[in-house]
Amino acid sequence: MIRKQPIYLDYHATTPLDPEVLAAMLPYLKDDFGNAASQQHIFGLKAQAAVKKARKDIAQCLGSEESEIIFTSGATESNNLAILGLAQRFEGKHFITTAVEHKSVLDPHKFLTSRGFKVTILPVDSCGKVSVAELKKAITPDTVLISVIAANNEIGTLNPIAEIGEIARQAKITFHVDGAQAIGKVPIDVEKMKIDLLSFTAHKFYGPKGCGGLYVRKRPHAVKLNPLFYGGGHEAGLRSGTLNVPAIVGMAKAMQKAESRRVEEAKRLIELRDRLYQGICSGLDEAYLNGHPTDRLPGNLNLSLVGVRSSAFIMAMPEIAVSSGSACSSANPEPSHVLKALGLSPERTESAIRFGLGRFTTEAEIDYTIERVVEVVKKLREKS
Ligand SMILES: *Cc1c(COP(=O)(O)O)cnc(C)c1O
Questions:
Q1: How far apart are CA 187 and CA 63, in angstroms?
Q2: In this structure, which residue's CA is closest to atom 2 in ligand 1?
Q3: Alpha-carbon span 229 to 154, nearest angstrom
């Protein structure tokens, strides 16, 4: 039985645009096309009002103030702005991050190392969690930034953000969180968690691609960043460039919707995800869970199907869109830095598959996936 419609189980890579989000965006792609910086006519004023409302709605979702939200092109830009924007004010100082960050956090740190900054990359435990004790040990009087991923994009593991926020606040160190996978899926509140800088991106929560933001704390202490590029001085001088009004409107709508359904959606996804896990495990032996058994994203299941290379598995099951645990391209078969950081054996890193479930995933899709995964893995194991 081959399905006509392919099944999408790669919601960590990106999510489809929610139809309600598209509807909210359309007027700003058509008649209300003004530049939000044009304050002298009705076209600009309408765009400006839409951006103001979006900023307010997003601030409310995150527990922040309107003026603390900076719009960017996505989480890659937000992470770079947070890390490099701060580094420009602290020549040669000490930065702390973790081994399981997204490349858009790790690579700016690598760049800083090459420019004479000191960087500590914290190890994680076998479930992918950063240790608070290790973090405390790494802090020096020169430390100016701690940057930690809230929810990992490969294995879904959640980090103790509130606990780290408390430590950073007491040590008077700026705390940056990559919240790209966490927003709309697990609770994130910049006040409760004492976050100073928070990166997010619309396309991970059913908004449009190419639009994101950075929360930058103003109160009770202000985090000062340098901009990465210069121009019209938009976004309080931190991010010059004409605002993408339709995408910003869409991002706000998407965040509100994700946030308002977060609890019930998490419950639904955990049930589906556990169904998938149990289904695969009852049909196959040597299927191992990567990441934390409970402290993980509701829609994440990362499994090593030992004996089957992830690339062969993915090719054998073209009607189901999943991803290998590694962020590698077929040209670069390096195992993922995240799986390596867990200390997994080569057999397990080579056979890791990431299933990402989301808003439009159905029980029927999960049942079909279980059947196919069991079938395909058995066949591939026989061959080898
Ligand atoms: C997707 C993702 C990013 C990059 O976001 P873009 O908006 O695609 O640049 C950064 N960090 C994490 C954890 C992600 O999942």
A1: 11
A2: 180
A3: 31
How much is the average pLDDT of 171-187? 98
Reported as type and span, the H/E element at residue 107 is helix 103-114
Q: Which atom of ligand 1 is nearest to the CA of 153?
A: 15
Label residue 374 by pLDDT band (50, 70, 90). very high
- Find tokens 């009852």 and name the residue: 282
CA 74 to centroid of ligand 1, rounded, Å:
7
| Angstrom distance (rounded) from CA 279 to CA 121 | 37
- Cβ neighbours for 126, distance < 8 A, ≥ 6 positions apart: 342, 343
Q: Are 292 and 157 in contact (CB under 8 A)?
A: yes
Residues 21, 18: Cα–Cα separation, whole Å: 5
Q: Is 80 in the pocket of ligand 1 (CB under 6 A)?
A: no
- CA dist 334 and 167 (Å) reads 35
pLDDT over 90 at 298, yes or no: yes
Q: The tokens of 378 are what?
A: 């058995």
Predicted local confidence at residue 332, as pLDDT = 58
What's the gap in Å between 137 CA and the centre of ligand 1? 29
Place of tokens 């009087």: 141
Instruction: Give yes or no: 328 in active site.
Output: yes
Query: Does ligand 1 come within 6 angstroms of the Cβ of 356?
Result: no
| Structural domains of the chain ordered from first start | 7-16+261-383 (3.90.1150.10), 19-260 (3.40.640.10)
Answer whether 152 contacts ligand 1 (Cβ < 6 A): no
Q: What is the pLDDT of residues 196-223, one digit of tens each?
A: 999 999 999 999 999 999 999 999 999 9
Contact 74, 211 (CB under 8 A): yes
Contact between 240 and 233 under an 8 Å Cβ cutoff? The reply is yes
207 touches ligand 1 (CB under 6 Å):
no
